[in-house]
Design a protein that fits this description.
Length: about 210
């Protein structure tokens, strides 16, 4: 409640004049709430997961399996980091502020090569599995709760492959052969969780390198 500063009478909400003495009064407005501010990690994750054209650069001469994630203009958006000798293999994807966006963990006991992708809270996003196709090569797919929802197909030896959801291509990956280090263009054109694309590319490149070593 507010009161007239001249006669002390109670004022009506939003009144410009006192109803008792008739003198003009100025209503006191409630202070506006301070605008909410996003944390650097929230901004960084939003930028990483909203950019549709990305470049994944693999670091050479490193004891770790490391990838820098950049925009096509060269802005650093995040990184993916793993360990060559870690069993099971594990990778962590972070945004530019260093906050975890997701992590990928390999499974030691599996009939086929399999990795699981989790959000920072430990919620399973999807599992990526490798399927051997006779006379053709290999193929990967994504599944959740035992149900396949995405297919990854193409020429993995040449690092040229696509992601397909519901029979529609939603992302594609191409290796930049003119680059000094392994560099991959990632273009996301459809409705798909960017984390699944990034995590899958890291897994596939890890698997192809491991396969060549064998």
């Amino acid at each position: 409640m507010t009161f007239c500063p001249y006669c002390g009478a109670q004022l009506q909400d939003g009144a410009g004049f006192c109803g008792s003495c008739g003198k003009p009064v100025r209503a006191t407005a409630a202070p506006s709430p301070a605008p909410s501010q996003s944390s650097p990690s929230t901004i960084g994750q939003t930028l990483l997961l909203s950019t549709r054209d990305l470049v994944l650069n693999k670091k050479i001469l490193s004891v770790r399996e490391h990838y820098d994630i950049q925009s096509t203009s060269g802005t650093q958006l995040g990184e993916a980091d793993g360990n060559f000798i870690q069993l099971p293999a594990k990778f962590v994807v972070q945004d530019a502020s260093g906050a975890e966006v997701m992590h990928v963990v390999g499974k030691l006991i599996s009939l086929r090569r399999e990795f699981e992708m989790y959000d920072p809270a430990g919620t399973l996003l999807a599992a990526i599995k490798k399927k051997i196709v006779r006379l053709v090569g290999s193929e990967y797919w994504l599944e959740l709760n035992g149900s396949q929802f995405a297919r990854i197909y193409g020429n993995f030896v040449e690092h040229d492959y696509r992601f397909q959801v519901g029979g529609v291509d939603v992302a594609q990956v191409h290796k930049k052969w003119v680059s000094v280090r392994d560099s991959f263009d990632i273009s996301i054109s459809g409705s798909v969780d960017h984390r699944l694309v990034l995590g899958s590319v890291v897994v596939i490149e890890h698997e192809e390198v491991t396969e060549r070593r064998r």
